[in-house]
Design goal:
Layout (H helix, E strand, L loop, with lengths): L8 H8 L3 H13 L3 E2 L9 E2 L2
Antiparallel strand pairs: 1-2
Helix pairs in contact: 1-2
Length: about 50
């Protein structure tokens, strides 16, 4: 899905055929490792760090 915006947790879950909670768990783990970052007040804020 190419929209030019970061995907939501639900969109990631749909593409991977996983639950939203599973995706959120892994995104939190990636954030703790500094691989992604996000604004907790925005649904489309996950981005890869440089």
């Amino acid at each position: 899905m190419e929209t030019g915006r970061p995907p939501t947790v639900r969109e990631i879950a749909a593409v991977l055929s996983r639950s939203g909670s599973t995706v959120a768990y892994h995104l939190r783990a990636l954030e703790e490792r500094g691989i992604v970052r996000h604004d907790p007040h925005r649904s489309r804020s996950y981005r890869l760090t440089s």
